[in-house]
Design a protein that fits this description.
single chain, 211 residues, alpha+beta, five-stranded mixed beta sheet, 9 helices
Length: 211
């Protein structure tokens, strides 16, 4: 019986220690900031929404992508992660439309990482629509369907909404992450990728069960 109590105490101490560690990992004003007013969340009730704001030409976004993919795969079912192209100025719109055009024809999951590679490793100017279409065609995409999607009303509307969301969430740089429409964090705030994911884990834990 004493052994069982000792084990129970040890388990409780471990849980408390982990909780305190998570709390210290997310320090308001240092590791994350609050979004005021808080924004509505698209995730179903019971889910914690994490939005990544990014830009394909951002070298920091490209560098983060493999670590982000690995972290995302470890997340439990109650965490919903979604990408969101940021539009800080109109020069960001071509690659925002490229993102939504790939999404429209069902090629986004396959080519999202490849777009980063083409821009940052292969030095291909995918900001130019025709270069983007040619590059995608070389990867097995139907060029005409992609061009049609890129110039469609739907993609233009999504690109315009991306610009609105960037302003609404007060995004000033990328990559940036928003948790449940309330908190914004980034590797710039936390001091590095590992620290970023610790803060995201802590904020997700904090928000779990609130919706």
């Amino acid at each position: 019986m004493h052994d069982l109590r000792r084990l129970a105490c040890l388990a409780a101490t471990l849980v408390l220690s982990l909780t305190l560690s998570a709390a210290r990992a997310a320090e308001w004003g240092k590791d994350y900031v609050e979004i005021s007013p808080a924004q509505s969340v698209e995730a179903p009730r019971g889910k914690v929404e994490v939005i990544e704001f990014f830009w394909y030409r951002c070298p920091h976004c490209a560098e983060l992508e493999p670590d982000l993919e690995a972290w995302a795969k470890r997340q439990p079912a109650h965490v919903l992660i979604r990408r969101q192209p940021a539009v800080l100025n109109d020069s960001w719109l071509p690659l925002t439309r490229a993102y939504y055009a790939l999404e429209a024809i069902g090629q986004l999951d396959r080519l999202h990482g490849a777009v980063f590679t083409a821009i940052h490793r292969d030095r291909i100017d995918l900001n130019d629509p025709n270069t983007f279409f040619d590059w995608a065609a070389s990867r097995g995409v139907d060029r005409s369907k992609l061009a049609e999607a890129y110039n469609s009303f739907s993609v233009n509307a999504k690109a315009a909404r991306a610009k609105q969301l960037t302003a609404r969430y007060k995004i000033t740089g990328v990559p940036a992450f928003v948790v449940n429409g309330k908190y914004q964090t980034s590797a710039y705030l936390t001091g590095g990728h590992k620290e970023l994911f610790k803060v995201l884990d802590a904020l997700i834990e904090q928000e779990k069960g609130k919706r």
